[in-house]
Amino acid sequence: MNIRQLQIFEVVCTEKNVTRAAEKLYMTQPAVSHVIAELEEETGCRLFDRISRRLYLNETGKRFLGKTKQLLELFEELSEGFSESEEFSPVTIGTAITAANFWLPELLRDFSERWKNTPVKIEVERTSDVEQKLLDCQADVGLLEGKVKSRQLEYVVFSGYHISAFAVPEMGKKCSMTTGELSESRLLLREKGSAIRDSFDYAMAAAGFEAVPAMESVNSQALIQAARSGFGIALLPDILVKREEEAGELKKIHVEGLEIFNEISIAWHREKELTSPLKWLVERLKNKSGLSKTY
């Protein structure tokens, strides 16, 4: 005995006619009759009296119908309850630092307006750490910077930023330099493991040079302040240094042959079943960016 059998039985009782019940259920008449026969066999009771080729619910059938309605109501409550519970299930979003500063605020605003009852926990870390949390199922989705390394992660690219060299105007008078000259300069870099540093190191290695930092920090603002003091050349996202550049405090230096662009992606474990709020989040970023490809 299963829920579908009980649903068919209830419709037959309501319609009081197998033909009409079959039409309502988009089934054939023999299929409906077969289900009724199965129920009677499984219960060991006749549920209908068959008189002049018509069905009449008998007393046993009436009692069975009462229990059937109770079960179907309970089943409906159970189904709806778990569907609605998705909205109340906590969501953990891991995010890389730059993504947290420039993309997360608007995303959280839109998400909170749509999913008012969904608790959200934000964890801001290096991209490599966010990736690991996704793989360990310690975060539901993550905003990643740079190349997504694990093939176990599914992701959608929705934005990105350029990484450039910045120094005080006095140091940037030359306006441009080679990668070799940059490698010999006093470099102010993010820590290893950060998406910004990894992308810069990869680009320098591809050009045949190694970047040795004079200053290394997890704090981009500390690097900006060091660059403002004239201590060296900071390699940072353009969006982070926009204010200082517009104020004339720092100047962008063109490095020949060095073009670095970090993609911003929303990622999740390939085997993870996304809840309705998380699916909405992914679709919202797809639509906003105009991108539809999932990797």
End-to-end distance, in Å?
43 Å
Structural class: alpha/beta
Overall, the morphology is rod-shaped
Percent of residues in helices comes to 40-55%
Q: Look at the structure and give the CATH class of the largest domain.
A: Alpha Beta
Count of distinct strands: 12
Strand content: 15-25%
Per the CATH scheme, the topology name of the largest domain is D-Maltodextrin-Binding Protein, domain 2
By CATH, the superfamily of the largest domain comes out as Periplasmic binding protein-like II
Residue runs with pLDDT of under 50 for 5 or more positions: none
Outline the biggest β-sheet. 10 strands, mixed
Average residue-wise pLDDT: 90
Radius of gyration: 32 Å
The string of secondary-structure elements, in order, is: HHHEEHEHHEHEEEHEHEHEHEEH
Named at the architecture level, the CATH assignment of the largest domain is: 3-Layer(aba) Sandwich
Q: What is the oligomeric state here?
A: single chain
Supply the number of structural domains: 3
